[in-house]
Here is the input.
Amino acid sequence: MKIPVVLFPNNITGICGYADAIWFMSLLNSSDPYYIFGAHILGAPLVRKLKLEPIPLGYVIVGEGGAAGVMGRAFPIPFDKPELAAAHALAAEYLGMHFVYLEGGSGVKKTVPLEMIRMVRNSINIPVIVGGGIKSGGQVEQIVKAGANIVVTGNITEAGNAKRMLAEIIAGARVK
Here is the structure.
């Protein structure tokens, strides 16, 4: 069985031909046009040349935002403003994006609030991705129950007990 590889680039230098697809992300709450659409203009010819499948994704930084918020010059959506996250997500859907990613930031202390995930899920008809600060299977289970279709956990792979943590995360994603 071939597992597809999807690139999650931070800019044009993250594009390569050793993948099947690429998240064609627009950081919707950035103050910098480069992260909203500029990188796409630069990268589009290379994506076509390499025959990568572009997957349009509305990227929304929330809460602390972590390094992604700083590097992307984002105005993170405050945790207590889920209606703003829902409005961003709805705009992403109306712009033709196929996914919305609510990003709390890599390694942050708090995850995206469950109420925010629920409000976004109930506002749109495209899949919701949630990431940032997720460290346990219990958190994954709550996030999935709140409406996330995909959960991103990156930092656990850097821990010494990554195999056990990954098994716990996967078990948490198997919500009935």
Observations:
- The beta strands are 6-7, 21-27, 53-61, 99-103, 128-131, 150-152.
- Helices lie at 33-49, 66-71, 82-94, 114-123, 137-146, 162-173.
- DSSP finds six helices and six strands in the chain.
